[in-house]
């Protein structure tokens, strides 16, 4: 019941925001002054000046393709750096964030395929133990029910349901507390 209430509340709040956000976006896209113009306007003009962007010129397909490639390349590099230094992030986030061993065991896997839909059911047992204190643990067994659909040559997950069967230990182990 709580899930339905949250969905209905979200829809109501979202619907109530539409006129305000829509009007704001319309004013921004037509170049009218909005309440954020005094703050964002100077930053936007500075960024355009640094990047040598002419706001009055239209952008052709070659310019757009170049911008897209540069933007994608910069953010792929950013993502690579994040993934590359992830092991060292505990310096910033605290020593216990990545400081645990996790072991998984998958049992009773069943796959059913019906034309362009499939279903995977399995039991997964996971044990988490902090590296600093092997006497603490959090052990749980979950039932996974994964529904897939075929899109071209690939199978895509449509829905995942994870039901906890049982658990034992201190859940703070997962949070690194």
**Count of individual beta strands:** 4
**Count of alpha and pi helical runs:** 5
Uncertain runs: none
Strand order of the largest sheet: 1-2-3-4
Rough outline: elongated
What is the arithmetic mean of pLDDT? Answer: 85
State the distance separating the first and last CA atoms. 32 Å
**Radius of gyration from the CA trace?**
25 Å
What does this 3D model show about the protein?
There is one protein chain. The protein has 177 residues and is an alpha+beta fold. It has two domains: 1-52; 100-175, Nuclear Transport Factor 2, Chain: A (Roll). 42% of the residues lie in helices and 33% in strands. The protein has five helices and four strands. Strand 1 (100-114) and strand 2 (117-130) form a beta hairpin. The longest helix is centred in the first third of the chain and has 28 residues, at 2-29. The radius of gyration is 25 Å and the shape is elongated. The two termini are 32 Å apart.
């Amino acid at each position: 019941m709580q899930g339905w209430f949250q969905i209905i509340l979200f829809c109501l709040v979202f619907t109530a925001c539409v006129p305000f956000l829509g009007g704001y976006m319309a004013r921004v896209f037509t170049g009218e002054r909005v309440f954020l113009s005094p703050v964002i306007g100077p930053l936007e003009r500075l960024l355009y000046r640094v990047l040598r962007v002419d706001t009055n010129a239209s952008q052709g397909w070659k310019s757009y393709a170049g911008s897209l490639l540069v933007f994608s390349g910069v953010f792929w590099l950013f993502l690579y750096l994040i993934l590359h230094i992830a092991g060292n992030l505990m310096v910033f986030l605290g020593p216990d964030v990545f400081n645990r061993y996790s072991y998984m065991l998958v049992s009773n896997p069943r796959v059913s395929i019906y034309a362009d839909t499939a279903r995977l059911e399995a039991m997964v047992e996971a044990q988490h133990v902090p590296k600093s204190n092997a006497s603490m643990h959090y052990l749980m067994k979950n039932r996974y029910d994964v529904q897939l659909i075929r899109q071209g040559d690939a199978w895509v997950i449509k829905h995942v349901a994870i039901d906890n069967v049982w658990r034992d230990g201190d859940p703070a182990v997962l949070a690194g507390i």
